Amino acid sequence: MSIALARKWRPKKFSELVGQDHVVRALSNALTQGRVHHAWMFTGTRGVGKTTLARIIAKALNCQARVDNEPCGACDSCESIDRGRYVDVIELDAASNTQVDNMRELLETAAYAPSVGSYKIFIIDEVHMLSKSAFNAMLKTLEEPPEHVKFILATTDPQKVPVTVLSRCLQFNLKPIPETLIGSQLTNILSAENITFEDQAIQILSQQARGSLRDGLSLLDQAIAQDIEGVKASKIREMLGLVDETVLSELLDSILTKNIDRVLELIEQVESLGASFVTILDDLALSMQKLALAGYVESPSSGADVSIPEKVSSNIDQEHLQLLYQIATLGKRDMVYAPNEKSGFTMVILRMFAFLPTSESDQIIKKAPVKKRVTKTHDDSIAKAKTPAENKTVEPQDVVNGLDWESFVSSSITGMGKMLAENCEFKNIENGTLFLKIADENKHLLDDRYKDKLLAAVRAELGEKIRLDIAVTGASQTPLMKAEDDERKELASTTKDIEQDPFVQSLQAEMGGKLVKESIRRKN
Q1: How far apart are the first and last CA of the chain?
Q2: By the 8 A CB rule, do 27 and 171 touch?
Q3: How far apart are the C-alpha atoms of 331 and 326, rounded to whole Å?
Q4: What pTM was computed for the model?
Q5: Are 413 and 403 in contact (CB under 8 A)?
Q6: C-alpha distances in angstroms, 115 versus 56, 62, 109?
Q7: Is there a contact between 365 and 315 (Cβ–Cβ < 8 Å)?
Q8: pLDDT tens digits, residue range 138-187?
Q9: CB 11 within 8 A of CB 49
Q10: Contacts from 100-108 at CB under 8 Å and sequence distance 24+?
């Protein structure tokens, strides 16, 4: 009968441990200098080597023929510890033995000298699961153990371990293992097992392992069982509920271009493949992260098995991209409350659509810079703005002394800058400075990110030398206020027309009908 890869390829020496060089170095130096602490605490996520490292230390301390700091792996002590039969190495699963009686029984044996080896070693896994009474029972022994006793504690949740216990231990945090190291280890194992594989398959497995080599090996076991001809990417995607990268790429492109018909077709295709919609949300978020990074660096490195659509890979609107990323990550959290995964995923995509730009001048793919156009001044005089073609730096005195503020806000600015501009009232332009006013309750919008976006749009309109001055004072004529006032007037006019409609009046008179004014809404 075959042995699981995670057990068969479990490291037996320090040199075989993957991704924890900082811990191995410290422990090796301690063994070399003879400064062996009486209690260690290993913390870290599952499958990163906590229990494996504890067993290697136990072998190193009791090895009969240790070479430098490494256990020989061949003596009776090493072989017995590997098989779990060494009488002086006691392992306890705290998740199954939480009570104080179990701990007292264990500690009673600490007073006795080791039967075979040099040290009696207690390995307590998932130590955070012990009860408060059990922790209290071990405190005295943990603080002043006999010289022949060593404690090695392991936990995935150090926050639940009492500080009185933590303070008595030498603590090491084992890090999640990088994808590259997991991939390299999987490749070496497959080569040693004489199993053919595809590089893309290793890439997917390494990513799905999420920093846990043990999880990666478990997934590899499943992948080997999928196809007798080798480890293939297509079989792994089917096994894990993943979709082909071309489908994901097209889905992302369809979202950014608001092609709802194609999105619905792709959702049906994903459902027919039996893929996980939660996993697809993860992949979408990862794609957006790559797109966001591509906006700042030319060649971002990433292990993601996702292609970025070429037509949206440059000049992406970073503000909207950040919003879409947030919708994807929060949408994953809310999926558990959806009637089913498909409906939950569909609503997340529709939420993305709702926050994408709607007007032609506000597309998520940025347009090429346009020439400066003629603008209307505040006193209805016309002034001509400079164009890039003139190849001349615009000085403050050359800036037009006026601006059609409402038109500018509605058509020439997007995102954060537009949010700030909508709440600002135009005052005037004087000596190369655009003066605006904002109400005190909206002063939180005077964040540098918002101001920088607004200033960039204003300079694109009026020239690079224009400055911006926003005073926190009474603002009563902002574009947003005017839009709301216009909407109220329009609603009042519509309500009056409905009230005076002969048909409505007849319904009220003859059938006792009542007009619910609150139900009247503006049609978007």
Answers
A1: 68
A2: no
A3: 8
A4: 0.60
A5: no
A6: 19, 11, 11
A7: yes
A8: 888 888 888 888 899 999 888 888 888 888 888 999 999 998 999 999 99
A9: yes
A10: 100/131, 100/133, 100/134, 100/136, 100/137, 102/134, 103/130, 103/134, 103/137, 103/138, 104/137, 107/137, 107/138, 107/141
